[in-house]
Amino acid sequence: MNITITDAINNSLFFFGAGASYDSGCKLSSGMLEDLKRKISSSDNETFNKPEKEALKFLLSCLEYHSEWRTLETSENFKFTPNIEELALLIRRVKNRENFLPYPITGNWADKLVLLESEFDSLPESDKQADTLFGSLDRIIKSRLLREWLEPSNLEFLNPLKEFFQSYPSTNFRMDIFSLNNDMVLEKYFTDNQINPWRGFVSGEWRGFEEENIPEDYGRINLYKLHGSLDWVRLDSGEFKEKDKLVPEDEQYIEQEHNPYVIFGQGTKTFSVEPFFSLLQQFQKKLKEKSYIFVIGYSFFDPYINNLLIKAVNGDSKKLIIINPFFGPEKLKTETKDGFKFLYDDFFLKIKYPQNITAVDLAKYIQEIQENSFYSEMPEFNIKQVNANSLELLPVGMKTFLETYFKNGGEVFTNFITEYESKRAEEYPF
Prior knowledge:
It holds the Pfam family SIR2_2. The chain is of the alpha/beta class.
């Protein structure tokens, strides 16, 4: 079977989680929390004032306790650790706690926080980032620290992808990349290399992905940022724009709680707001169209996204290719002289399962996430039946994946798609 690179790319979707940016130096959630702990343990008040530090210590202690309890509740089948989005969500819930129905019952659950709020209120206005203690914490983390944590320091790991595009200067294909990441890793690298990704904006104004004729100055990457971007802002009119393209008179209308305009600690409810709603619709549409879904650096700890991915590959011959060096239960690892490790072949990087272990065990792991009430408020609505035949695990990182699959004009990538297309032709001859 002769599969061209255009066929292979046009039939594939690439989905990025936080791990896809790890090689750039962007911090993962664990690194963000460690940096936060250092800042609140320092003697200076450069980032946080005293009540803010004390409030964060209290909240982090609560998250640590809750994570350990959740781990024990699952008989340690899952290892829960606090993450930065949980902290952001907790801060927002405490800030808005009077709006929750049980507040008359639970209002006294943390007298310490009330005392800290009073201490914060007594500070000079020059020492505050917002009117309230938890409003200030929310703004500092989202508007200041998130930018620091997601600042890339090394973009060379993307070189194989650049060289891949350069191998086909006149070939007509576009790579669809959907990302949960807010960072600017792909934009910075590819814009510097004259492969400016198309993100749905023209001159800073949102046009969406229904645009039939993409402007010529955009390269061959469609980048759908499902959770927003560090360079997006929302104005008080509800319009959202690229910040660096704002006209001066618009600066005064930026909503500071949406600077940047990202989904961070809000859960899935924000998906009903533009552009997130339209982006999610595009994601669903492309999942239906594509046969090969490459999921890179994603933890699968978001059942809302999982439902879309699982539905896309259940019941037919599609493939969900998971690229992640840390994903899956311990039983997928093989005992070696250096301890238990993921083993994989040298060509396609597919996992070598230990004896009596198969992709069914990988499917069960995803199913357990879908059933777990700690990941979802309503797990009974999640899709739980996972088609094991659709799963492939490549237990490697983004850098290794790109170096292997996209060097030499994407030779391994094309061979990978060709192999599965041949199998599909045999299994579904008509």
